[in-house]
Write a structure and sequence with these properties.
alpha/beta; six-stranded mixed sheet; three-stranded antiparallel sheet
Length: 306
């Protein structure tokens, strides 16, 4: 029994006439009649009673029609679901993001817009640090990650830069430097820094230390925080100062004030990393959306700078 047998049977049942059913199916009447006879032979019982020039379902045919219609409906549903998946309109998108990325409006806006455009795609979110997320991307347990370079990556990673944020200094609100409108790196030479340091040695904190040295001093490291929000909380506790991306200013614990850092470098880069050989349409749609928002503002790199 093949699907065409079921389609021929349902069409005949609805038309109650072999010739009309054949015309609707776009085939000749004799082959249709032959297919119905073969179906009845396989079932072992007639499905129609002949009435004049037409046919009507008998009791066996009525039972079979219900099941055949259900099967065809399921087949059509499976087809349409597969076609939606091929277009990236259905399926699962596994997205990773760093904690600091979640403070950036670009990330939240991108995810919100993606869900609006593709409501039938399940978006699964996971938060971790950049290096762990890149590792997850490499072993295919995650599909796309919002991360901050630099990091050590394999050649199979594609990175699209979304934003380049200025840095701000998080200070205890009673700190003498809090009275200034903006700060220079040299203003921080006597301060205790709270940094977020990656195991690899790459990252924003390493860039900040390097920038300080280029300005004539080695920063005093007072604390190492597990993540940027922890660094800001340690500032609130009076443990030192922290240099963080400007988007972190939306984090407003009591006792902390932010001042712009008047420096052209370093900057906090934020972007989207995917596998270069990715073929999933749900990921392609995310990249397309990111491309729409980043035209003229950012570029694509095959691997971020170290």
């Amino acid at each position: 029994m093949e699907l065409r047998h079921l389609r021929y049977f349902v069409a005949t049942a609805q038309a109650e006439h072999f010739t009309r059913a054949a015309q609707q199916l776009g085939i000749a009447q004799p082959p249709l009649s032959q297919q119905i006879r073969e179906l009845e032979k396989e079932i072992g019982a007639p499905l129609f009673d002949r009435v004049g020039r037409g046919v009507v379902l008998n009791s066996v045919g009525k039972v079979f029609l219900e099941r055949a219609s259900d099967i065809l409906s399921r087949v059509d549903d499976a087809l349409h679901t597969a076609q939606r998946a091929a277009r990236g309109e259905a399926g699962v998108l596994r997205v990773g993001f760093t904690e600091s990325a979640s403070f950036n409006d670009l990330v939240t806006h991108t995810l919100s817009l993606y869900q609006h455009r593709h409501p039938e795609v399940e978006v699964s979110l996971e938060e971790s640090n950049s290096e762990s997320l890149i590792a997850c991307l490499g072993d295919k347990t995650i599909d796309a990650v919002f991360v901050r370079p630099p990091f050590s990556v394999a050649s199979g990673i594609h990175f699209v830069k979304l934003a380049e944020e200025s840095l701000v200094v998080a200070l205890p609100d009673k700190h003498p430097l809090a009275t200034q409108a903006s700060l220079h790196l040299q203003d921080l030479h006597a301060e205790r820094f709270i940094i977020y340091a990656r195991k690899s040695g790459y990252g924003l904190s390493a860039d900040i230390v390097s920038a300080c040295r280029q300005h004539g001093f080695s920063p005093s490291i007072g604390q190492r925080a597990p993540q940027l929000s922890s660094a800001v909380n340690l500032v609130a506790a009076g443990m030192g100062i922290a240099v963080v991306p400007a988007s972190m200013r939306c984090m407003q614990p009591a006792g902390v004030t932010y001042r712009p850092l008047d420096s052209s470098w370093p900057k906090a880069v934020l972007g989207l990393a995917t596998r270069r050989d990715e073929t999933s349409s749900v990921v392609s749609n995310l990249l397309q959306l990111v491309s729409e928002g980043s035209d003229g503002r950012a570029g694509a790199l095959d691997s971020p700078p170290h």
